[in-house]
Amino acid sequence: MDYLSVTQTAFFTATVLTFIASISLFRLCLTQRATLPFALGFTFNTAWLLLITLSYSEFLVSTSIGLIAELCHFLIWLLVMGALLRQRVSLRHWPKAIQVISAVALLICISTLVLITTPNATTQMISGAFAILAALLLVLTEQTIRNTSRSRITKLIGLCISIQFVFDAYLYGQIAISSSLEIGLWQTRAALAFTAALVITLSTILFSHEETNTSITLSRPVAFYSATSLVTALIFTVLGLGALYVRNLNGYIGSYLFNVAMVGAIILIGSLYTSRQVRSAVEVFINKHFFNFKYDYQSEWLRAISFNANHTPSSPHYYDHALNYVCGAFNSPAGAIWLNQDGLLNGVARTDHLTEVPSFGLNAPFVKLMIKEGWIYAPLSTGKSISQNNELLPLWFNEQGFWLVSPLLSQMKLLGFIAIKKPRQSKTVTFEDRDLMTNITNQLSSQMLIHQQETVISNNKQIEAYNRLSAFIMHDVNNVMAQLAFIVKNAEKHKHNPAFIDDMVKTVDNANERMRSLVEKFRPDKKDTNETIEASKVLDEVINVCSDKVPKPILEHKEDFTITADRQKLFFALKNLVRNAQEATNADGYVKVSIGKDTETSRFYISIQDNGAGMDAGFITNELFKPFSSTKEDKGMGIGAHLTKSYLESIGANLYVDSAIGKGSTFTIVFA
Fold first, then answer.
1. Which segments in the chain show pLDDT lower than 50?
2. What's the CATH superfamily of 530-670?
3. What is the sign of the dihedral through the CA atoms of 61, 64, 69 and 70?
4. Residue 2 contacts residue 54 (beta carbons within 8 Å)
5. Domain boundaries, the chain
6. Residues 66 and 59 sit within 8 Å (Cβ to Cβ)
7. Phi, psi (5° rounding) for residue 538?
């Protein structure tokens, strides 16, 4: 197969794809009439490419007809750009630069037609005119697209046409200089036409409902990785195929490549037309990597962090603040938040624009889909991929004009959902809106779930504390009741015995003291009666009371000092430390109580030392002074150490603990 056959195949594939592109554009005209000039332009392009294809077959096309067709190709696009401008402004209101470019291009078209029909015209002259026309049309296309439309389809079509004009200017400039046509460049022109038609066809499928104000760009990953990988792969591929083409296949590979490309393009177009899933995936990929983003995601991320740092679900009007934050992110005038409360989604926040907000059950179809897939609804959207499942929404959302309805999900648990109305600037919902909404609601949901879990834990702890406190109180009350019951039981038999009467008075007095002590422990509102107390005297009282158990505490005097405190509370605090030391120590051990002054810091201290069981560092840090935490079985509720430490700190003292398992413990109270 020779070079001419390869060229014919190349232009045939370009003709087929351009014909498909023109059909797609005419189909798009049903919803976007502004694309009609493009549809007409690509229809003529189909005829022009078909004429070039036929020129390589048995249907002979004269040189003059071919050149006139080439001139008409440029002229048609000049008229297309003019028609696009006329859709926006009248001819006399065109920018001066565009008027000049259009007039010059039209004059060159007329002059070139004269040259073509002149027998003495040279190839260099006609090619030079075509090169100038291509350059003028490149500038005109850029200015027209910039000033007429901001839709993605129009920008893509303008980009494709501009690339072709750049190549045409180079191609005809090269012919004007060298007076010869490189067949490789001519085949490349067909490949460019093929690629442009494919891109335009895909854009009509993917962006048929897109009217977004945007510009073409590349995401950083695509710009770096794709460009590097693609260029490297293309270099080696071209080198390998070139060697194969020259040495072995004698040109056959060119036809095969163009045919394979055409079949692949048709398959791709067919799959996009027939498969909504493929179409959605390709649309999102192109939107993410080849167009500017609508939102500044860094700013939105910082705003989300700032909101979560300054507001917690426990703060007043949290859900109102959260709603205002979400509406502000999308520039939405109104919205509402529903919260899952005992299996019913109730409105907890709404803007003033909404008079009432209905409740929904978890079994509602639209709610089930949100739970299952995290689906975000776009009630006003007409895009096929985004508007799917809208039929599940209650009519109320459409009647109220809601723009997005998004679930508040965290750890597969539906906490509620949020709905916002259409932004003040009319916007069509895109993947960016849904992505931003997903990011925002995920952060809000995580914070809400953490708060709910903390609330549950706090409530459980309060219930547990209440139960343990009740058990603690009942334990002491039962002891007192047992003492009194014993007196009543023996009163009838021993009421005339003076010794029994004496014991009865002591028992009642003891019961009274225990009940008074119990009440005092739980009266934090009781005002302290502070007085100046000698440390040795209050310790003598503690030692005397605690000597009823073994090992008996031993008091060591080093240097006495005075303490300003409530005598009764200080007594109970010191007594608690000594009792704990006794209970942790065997009968043959020791409990030493000492008072003195630290020579380095000049601060007075009281220490209680034992050689009992001891404690590890983890228990001291995490459990020792934690209320209602105790390792002693049936000997209290673990509140004593907490109350002791709290009271000592309230009078300006610090309690330090030094302990080791099996070696005993030392509690040191250091006074300011």
1. 1, 210-252, 256, 633-637
2. Histidine kinase-like ATPase, C-terminal domain (3.30.565.10)
3. positive
4. no
5. 3-209, 297-450, 530-670
6. no
7. -65, -30
CA 420/CA 109 separation, integer angstroms: 55
Neighbours of 556 (CB within 10 A): 12
For 297-450, the fitting CATH number among 3.30.450.40, 3.30.30.10, 3.90.1150.10, 3.30.479.10 is 3.30.450.40
Structure tokens given for 244: 């194969």
Separation of alpha carbons 309 and 381, rounded Å: 34
Non-local (6+) Cβ contacts of 648 within 8 A are 573, 654, 655, 669
630, 640 Cβ separation under 8 angstroms: no
pLDDT at 222: 41
The structure tokens 């695509």 sit at 222
Fold: same for 297-450 and 530-670? no
CA–CA gap between residue 509 and residue 496 (Å, rounded):
20
Separation between Cα atoms, residue 324 and residue 263, nearest integer Å: 52
Supply the pLDDT for residue 266. Answer: 59
**Contacts with 407 (C-beta within 8 Å, 6 or more apart), sequence order:** 370, 371, 374, 375, 376, 414, 416, 417, 441
Distances (CA, A) of 132 to 146, 227, 297: 21, 31, 44
Task: For residue 175, give the nearest of 128, 120, 136 by alpha carbon.
Answer: 128
Cβ distance 628 to 469 under 8 Å? yes
CA atoms within 13 A on the CB side of 78: 25
Q: Say whether 656 sits in a helix, a strand or coil.
A: strand
**Phi-psi sector, 80: left (phi>0), alpha (psi -120 to 50), beta:** alpha
DSSP string covering 192-232: HHHHHHHHHHHHHHHSTT------B---HHIIIIIHHHHHH
Separation in Å, CA 565 to CA 176, 533, 536, 556: 108, 7, 14, 22
Closest-CA residue to 196 (of 184, 186, 204): 204
Q: Please report, for residues 129, 146, 208, the alpha-carbon distance to residue 81 in angstroms, rounded to integers and kept in the order given.
A: 19, 12, 21
Both structure tokens of 317: 């009007």
Query: Strand pairing partners for 565?
Result: 531
Q: What is the pLDDT of residue 657?
A: 93
Task: Give the full edge-to-edge strand order of the sheet including 413-421.
Answer: 360-361, 344-350, 335-341, 413-421, 402-410
The pLDDT, as a whole number, for residue 62 is 81
Instruction: Name residues whose C-beta falls within 8 Å of residue 429's C-beta, 6 or more positions apart in sequence.
Output: 378, 380, 381, 383, 386, 403, 404
Please give the single-letter amino acid code of residue 576. Answer: N
Give Cα 244 to chain centroid, integer Å.
50
User: Could you tell me the two tokens for 371?
Assistant: 């739970």
Residue 419, SS3 per DSSP: strand
- Given this model, what pLDDT does residue 14 score? 86
3-class SS shares of the chain: helix, strand, coil, % to 5 = 65, 10, 25
